From TrEMBL:
Taxonomy of the source species: Bacteria, Pseudomonadati, Thermodesulfobacteriota, Desulfovibrionia, Desulfovibrionales
GO molecular-function terms, A-Z: L-cysteine desulfhydrase activity
Protein name: UPF0597 protein SAMN05660830_02183
Domain of life: Bacteria
UniProt-listed GO biological process terms: L-cysteine catabolic process to pyruvate
Domain Serine dehydratase-like alpha subunit: 88-418
Pfam families the record matches: SDH_alpha
Family recorded in the similarity comment: Belongs to the UPF0597 family.
Amino acid sequence: MKNEWNEYIAILNREVVPALGCTEPITVSLAAARAAEELGKKPERILVQVSGNLLKNGMGVGVPGTGMAGLGIAAAVGALGGKSSLALEVLRDITENAVEEGKRMLASGDVLVELADTSELLFAQVSVFNGDHVATCTIQRQHTLVTEVTKDSEIVFTYAFEDEESKADSWPLTMAKIYDFAMNVPFDKITFILEAVRLNEAIAIQGLEHEFGLKVGRSMDQDIALGLRSDDITSFATRLAAAASDARMDGIMQPVMSNSGSGNQGITATIPVLAFARRLNKSEEEMARALIMSHLTAIHLKHHLGRLSALCGAILAATGSGCGIVMLLGGDYDGIERTIKNMVGSVSGMICDGAKTSCALKVASCVEAAISSALLAVKGVCVPGSDGIVDDDIEICIHNLGRLGTVGMVETDKVILDIMVRK
């Protein structure tokens, strides 16, 4: 096996992991759990300080096992019943007693959430207090990256960041390399990706069978029964993905397989590929290779955008699934490039205005756009490089999308947050 393929597998194992609940409030729960473990006593008060982007993504999304939304309850149950060793599944074992006690802390005003003075887009610092004792945990840049832990002002743990410039220069992925890997890596080396199918299909079924969130996926099922929609492969993929997002954003106590720190991105990179593989009667190996294409593409695009931005991450994950669908349809590498260009030329401006139940609508829109982009691509149809932010060079095209979502939408991000906090 090629040496660089081991690195790609390591990237997948790092970025495609189970997550219980929306990863922004879960980051706060994780920081709270780690701080409480260091404190060694039951917290009497909790102070949560977060970046604007994390606040935006934690205001309106359900916290698993609580029936509530927001960073306050996420911090409370994390501190009272979370296990930091479980990472993004930190709330997996919370008890009803911990939830009820967390709700009482919140109602008593013992949990304070405020904006941190930080330039980091992803930043959460949780301090827990008992009498004269205080412990603090800081997470930044990645949803599980603990960068400092203190107790009574003494540093217990600190993380040394790598040189960011040299790290960026060493990024190993390109679309051509991803395609080569997905096509040629031995099947037994990538069977682990099928766990994403098991987890994300299970939550999609829950979303179809029960009334979660806006019921986007479930509603599409009902529309099919009424003859308002057809039960074609596009509808199948879209309603499954939307239903999974419905359940997840409503706080279902069930994990999904995430991608790049986002459960919705994991859902969107997995479910459409699963749907096409099932309806086209593809083998497990063919589905696994398409999933590898999808997830690595999403990771590659996300690398250029950053963990949190004003650009909706479902665009990136859906672009990945579109590339996986091209593989299942028998398309070649040129079809992969055309799919990406078609997506960049269509839905690249969708904003992220926080994690919430309406994310299921965005997932549905992005999945439908990805399927249209893929179907056009296999016919040889492509948005030309002369149009808008699209470029003939696929890596420049991806860079342009990343630049739009970072440099280009800085002010957009500020306006979105200002609108949300003024409600």
